[in-house]
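Quality-control log, excerpt.
Job 1 of 2 completed; input and output follow.
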Amino acid sequence: MTKQADVIQKEEKYYVATQWQLMRQKFVKHKLAMAGLVVLALLYTLGIFSDFFATQDYQKRNTRYINAPPQRIRFIDADGHFHLRPFVYGLTQEMDPETWRRTYVEDTSVIQPIRFFVRTDTYKFWGLFDANIRFMGVDEGPFFLFGTDGSGRDLFSRVMYATRISLTVGLVGVFLSFVLGCVFGGISGYYGGKIDMVIQRVIEFLLSIPTIPLWMALAAALPKDWETIQIYFAITIILSMVGWCSLARVVRGKLLEVKQKDFVIAAKLAGANDWQIITRHLLPSFMSYLIVSITLAIPNMIIGETALSFLGIGLRPPVVSWGVLLQDAQNVRTINLHPWLLIPAVFVVVAVLSFNFLGDGLRDAADPYK
């Protein structure tokens, strides 16, 4: 009787649950979506607190360690002794007598313990106040978890700062695309007629233009003397100018489907104006689909910014983004000699996959009755 009562109780909870509760229950069961959510939460945490998680100033040049390889975190030393505190070995520079290429080897006689919440050089946290505590570091000597670039700058610290820029470009760009897509798609689907025809022809024209050449042309039009913050917002607007088209078509199709429903007619009889009907009744009726569209659009924004910056027409140094960092890995010889310069690409792939997994889970949860 107890098992049967539990089954009946679960069925009762299912039938009295709201749609949002059913969506949440179904989303939690999607393992890939939950994994993507956890990874994205970690990435955004690293981006928001990049000043704290970076091991040093991302612009600091370590001229003694140019193109140094990543240092391996160890718990067991060369003599086989186990250390409770993780450590890295020191680096010694050598010159290859045949190729005259500078190489680095681990100096096993120098053990550098990794310490947490260490005091280092002073930095401006979010540009608001001075701080000198970082998540981890060493007392002295080199500490390059991802190696260094051709100027001797710590790649790990630069990736932390780049994470903030690349991920926020996606969020801001999608927000603008969401607003434009809902407004123009709502107007097109609700009013129809000549307004619908004009908006749809504009959308078809924008979608017919190859994306990369369009972005290149718009980005190349930016003044060279603009400041970093101006370029940042300009790139975001450029990415949003095309990103709203697909969402506008989805919104238009949904409005054509539901605008003759009883609840819309009831809102009209109650005296609601057109703007209230669109924003308070029509758009919320398929908000779950809009959330899914937003989630799946963010990776496109991230890839767009990365592509523009990689080509040298997007964000420019001293700003760091994943695309800016990948400019150092534009030829096969560099990748062959210094493969760690491709580490920012790993972050791009992980972020895009996580967003896609999250969007896939939201898409399944959007229809909890299936």
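Job 2 of 2 completed; input and output follow.
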Amino acid sequence: MTEFLERVYFHNTVQTYLIAIGFILLGLILISFFKHRILTRIARLTQRTKSNFDNHLVESIDRFGVPALYIAVIYAGLNYLELPVRASKVIQLATTVVLTYLAIRIISSTILLLLRSYISRQDNGDEKVKQLGGVILVVNIFIWGLGILTLLDNLGYDVTTVIAGLGIGGIAIALAAQNILGDLFNYFVIFFDRPFEVGDFIIIDDKMGVVDKIGVKTTRIKSLSGEQLVFANSDLTNSRIHNYKQMQQRRVLFKLGVTYQTTYEQLEAIPGLLRRIVDEQENVRFDRAHFSSYGDSSLDFEVVYYVLASDYNVYMDTQQRINLRIFKEFHERGIDFAYPTRTLFVVNEDQENKEQPVLR
């Protein structure tokens, strides 16, 4: 038996082969036990928690961590053997590449899960998570770039030269693509500062509409007339934006004028009448009604009230009901609305001269 174990095949004894195979089999059995017994129970426990982060973390370990352990055990077992130099280098290279790939995937998944978990806890988190596409792209480029540099360093390449080359190339690219990089930076400003979100109704200068998509370079807005407006992210962050999403109530100021032939008693009753009409409406808080000024052809009244809703249609429906009630009440009371008029007084000069006494 001892003589059989000491036989040499391809520079290794039978005993060496058995030890390597036994080590690999034992490692595979332990990893399989960990996966099906321990990791499965941990996954069941995470199902009971409120957070989804631990569930995704266990899933990442199952998808990428366990295969990495399998490869590490096989590599350790083969490394125990005395292999030809070329075969050893090929195995080492393949193992390094695969383990680096799996490590990058684990790190990338973990960072993105942390980011999703943080975003989902905010207001309208589900909607914000849908907008993570650009951030995920940039994070993945950074992680994969760092991982590839680490791989090249492990393979014996001079990473310093590569980084220096990338730095010079990066400066040239940055100078050539200032606008693109500016839009990309402003995308992060929009994403994390949240001046507006998808679904918000916003006004930029004389353009208005509902935010349809926030991209890495541009933001798309669907206008009220139906066409799509495309804005560069830099233009949006440099503009004054009116965002109506956070508006809890709408302040309304309107004016009306009555004729100068209106009596004093009617003028005195109009503010109270306007208040009563406004108070009759639902979801409305009256503020004031005053005889504000003497116009060129009207006696002007100013009314202020608040619509306790942000919806524009609710505001217009309320204003319409108020206007109809005012028209009805003024008609019943004989109060005339003013409109631009001009009274012309004509004097008959001949008649005026006849009436004047002649002085002698």
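Post-run check on job 2. The chain has a mean pLDDT of 79.
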